[in-house]
Amino acid sequence: MSQPVITLTLNPALDQTVTVPLLRTGAVNLASEVHVNAGGKGVNVASCLADWGVPVVASGLLGRDNTTPFEDLFADKGIRDAFIRVGGSTRTNIKLVDASTLDTTDINLPGIQPSTGALAKLQLLLDEHIEQNSLAVLAGSLPAGVDDGCWAQYARQLRQLGARVVLDTSGPALQQALAPDALPWLIKPNQHELEQYLGRALPDLTAIAAAARQLQQRGIAVVVVSLGSAGALLCCDQGCWLAEPLQLDKLKSTVGAGDALVAGLVAALHATAPGQTPVWPEVLRLGMAFAAAKLAHIGPHLPDTGEVARLRARIQVTPLTP
Ligand SMILES: Nc1ncnc2c1ncn2[C@@H]1O[C@H](COP(=O)(O)OP(=O)(O)OP(=O)(O)O)[C@@H](O)[C@H]1O
Ligand SMILES: O=P(O)(O)OC[C@@]1(O)O[C@H](CO)[C@@H](O)[C@@H]1O
């Protein structure tokens, strides 16, 4: 079997998606649908990768009082469960979907404060699982009480072990992880997260692409910026490309679309033989196909691989000139 991808989720969540026909704040809303699924950014990435047939080890911290939905997901999809159990219950995040617009209001809880022992155990686990060139996805927020430099610390360790670090986080944790000695190999901020990191607005595509190029020139091999319904762009030393999203008529939930995008990028990189240069527009195209496929589902699930491949064939990717 090929080398597995490892995903780390320090702050997983049970996502409770509540759909209402038309959201009215400050009023009584009757739900038309309710779903609960195991989530958190790295869990979502692992789930989409497994659906595509990529071997995955999912790790991070899981509250030992409500593990069943996570364990069921891992067992159903053949994901190796390397989560460290900590005291308490994993948080529940509420995703309120207005069916009239598909706008989602997120209410995310802080999560369990882990002990330093649990974080140290995770370091030992990385030593055990990482090989030269492994893809390691560090995704999501840090739980309450964890130092903002935590992702940076794992990124440094992973770099020393020879892994390619894929980071999807925001705020101070992103700020710290972009220190020169921690620099990830690939980052995937959305537009808002990139603006927050830079402390300025990026009013148009030219400004977003220029910001992505600057980060890439600072030493991050691949910078992907997701733009919601406007698509995504990828910049690396071979160039920049923009992918346009498909017009889809069966949108169910945008929650985790960014994670599906990350999973698609990682799946394409995983399929590239060691020493070979990835075909970057194709890497972006598969990421976009995963995101489009996920939008038709609540929860981190992809349809069969044939359907994802059909979506991939419809995605337009165009080079962006500086
Ligand atoms: N409304 C939409 N219509 C079409 N495609 C969409 C829509 N929303 C998201 N996408 C697709 O999903 C990708 C990722 O979405 P987005 O930029 O919202 O990620 P994100 O903010 O990281 O999301 P999350 O944190 O919920 O995972 C986009 O690049 C796009 O391809
Ligand atoms: O608190 P974080 O880690 O930033 O975000 C957590 C979260 O919103 O991200 C996923 C969607 O991307 C959800 O499964 C989960 O609830």
TrEMBL record:
Protein task: Catalyzes the ATP-dependent phosphorylation of fructose-l-phosphate to fructose-l,6-bisphosphate.
Name of the gene: pfkB
Name of a matching Pfam family: PfkB
Family: Belongs to the carbohydrate kinase PfkB family.
Key words, A-Z: ATP-binding, Kinase, Nucleotide-binding, Transferase
Species of the source: Vogesella aquatica
Gene3D superfamilies reported for this sequence: 3.40.1190.20
Name used for this protein in its record: Phosphofructokinase
InterPro entries: 1-PFruKinase, Carboh/pur_kinase_PfkB_CS, PfkB_dom, Ribokinase-like, Tagatose/fructose_Pkinase
